[in-house]
Each structure stands twice: as C-alpha cells, then as structure tokens.
Amino acid sequence: GKGKEIKEAPSAAAAPKGQGQRKGDKGGYLPPPPPPKGKGKGKEIKEAPNIVTFKCMAHKLDGTELELTLHSNWNVDMARKQVGSQLGINAHRIKLILGADVLEPQVCVTTAGVEEGSVLSIVILPPIYGSIAEHRLKVPDEVISAKIELHDALEGLGRLRPTV
C-alpha cells in the first residue's frame, strides 16, 4: 500500500530559528521545557544522626568551675564560645584541655572524647593571643613573648593607658 513518508525532525540545536522550538504567545520562541518534576535520580537523603545534648564541667586553674551544656554535633570552637560567654572574654583566648590533650577548635567535641560528665581544663591566654587568632595571623612565638615582656615592663612603670 501507499503510506506517507515520515521525515525525521531536525534537532533544536541544528534547526533554523523557529524549527524544533516551542512558539510563545507573542510570537517569540521559548527555551525547551524543564524536565518533569518528581522522583529524580539523585542520591537519597539520609536522616541526620541523633544529636545528643550533654553536660560536662570545665575548671579554670584558679578553681572556678563552669557547667557546660554541649551538643554532640558541635565542634570544640562552639564549646570555647560558651566558656567565653560565661567568663565574659573572647573565645579566641580560650584553650580547652581534656586529660593531657589540647582540643583543636575545628574538631567535633565527641570525636575529641568529650562526653557526659567529662571534666575539661580551661587555659586563658593573654589578650594578644585572642587578637592574633581572631585575625588569623601567623606570628612567631618570640615576637609574642617580646610583646608581652614589653607590656609587663611598661605596666610596671605605670606607662600604660587603658584602651576603650
């Protein structure tokens, strides 16, 4: 029998303007429609692990005790901020110690070994350390030591004025 010949339509990229594209209401041509919504081929989102809230103690070297409420997904820096808030000082000046280990700010508290009932030691560094850390500067230890010695000498002579 006689059938109609079917011609393959050219792709939209290779077609002259107007062919293979959708025509808009005002005569212009629209981009291809977005893919249909629904289940995609993306990765399945897993539920977040349970976040546990727990308490531990932190002691300053002068015997002052602080109770901290921490969350298992926090990093050590969040714990330092809580200590700084309770003591009224910049968190960058605070080092937290568990046993013989200085806790790194970016490490998760539970990965560092902090858990319910842990006892942390608090070391408060001079203000210059807080400023250096806050501005992410790398300063040699001998420069910091010289600055602290100069500060102490000027303070002993009564030559320092408080800054506001």
Write a short abstract of this structure:
By secondary structure, this protein is an alpha+beta fold. It has helices at 76-87, 127-134, 141-156, and strands spanning 22-23, 29-30, 53-60, 65-71, 94-98, 101-102, 119-124.
By secondary-structure content and strand pairing, the structural class works out as alpha+beta
Beta strand %? 15-25%
Number of helices: 3
What pattern of helices and strands is seen along the backbone?
EEEEHEEEHH
Mean pLDDT: 78
Biggest sheet, open or closed, and with what strands and sense? Answer: 5 strands, mixed
Low-confidence stretches: 6-16
> Roughly how many Å is the radius of gyration?
32 Å
Topology summary:
Blueprint: E1 22-23, E2 29-30, E3 53-60, E4 65-71, H1 76-87, E5 94-98, E6 101-102, E7 119-124, H2 127-134, H3 141-156
